[in-house]
Design goal:
binds magnesium ion; binds uridine-5'-diphosphate; 7 helices; globular; single chain; Alpha-Beta Plaits; 4 strands
């Protein structure tokens, strides 16, 4: 069944001009882009988005990084989109990511790892609503 997931091309990747290459992979792998916008998160926006991680030691650094420059936020549709996108991204730590994954190819570190993807239908719904109004989804 077709579903939607929420994705981010993170500030490290946008800054290194990798957005086009990543979008090309997204389309080549069969996702349909339903929503897309360039955003520059405030520190508060980033803290709200990653609230589930607020007790983790990397929270301050992560949210500072996510607010460090523009990022591309996306809604992607495909059969089994949530799992399909996480598979295409690869492991959080690029050192552990499989060959051919976006993080293996483009991530600089476990923090500056080029992309985000929702991990479950409930989080996908919350994350999509954090960035997109219904009228901006197509
Ligand atoms: N992160 C980090 N250090 C860690 C684990 C995660 O800086 O030890 C960052 C990284 O940018 C990651 C984000 O926090 O993408 C969210 O972590 P999560 O465990 O949810 O990984 P993801 O779902 O993005 O693979
Ligand atoms: Mg996660």
């Amino acid at each position: 069944m077709s579903e939607c997931t929420f994705a981010i091309i993170k500030p490290d990747a946008v800054k290194r001009k990798l957005a086009g290459k990543i979008l090309q992979r997204i389309e080549a792998e069969g996702f349909t882009i339903r929503g897309m916008r360039l955003v520059h998160l405030s520190k508060k926006d980033a803290e709200g988005f990653y609230a589930v991680h607020r007790a983790r030691p990397f929270f301050a650094s992560l949210t500072e990084f996510m607010a460090s420059g523009p990022a591309v936020v996306l809604v992607l549709e495909a059969p089994d989109a949530i799992k399909k996108w996480r598979t295409l991204m690869g492991a959080t730590d690029p050192a552990k990511a499989d060959a051919g994954t976006l993080r293996k190819e483009f991530a600089e570190s476990i923090e500056r790892n080029a992309t985000h993807g929702s991990d479950a239908p409930e989080t996908a719904a919350v994350e999509i609503a954090y960035f997109f109004r219904g009228v901006d989804l197509n």
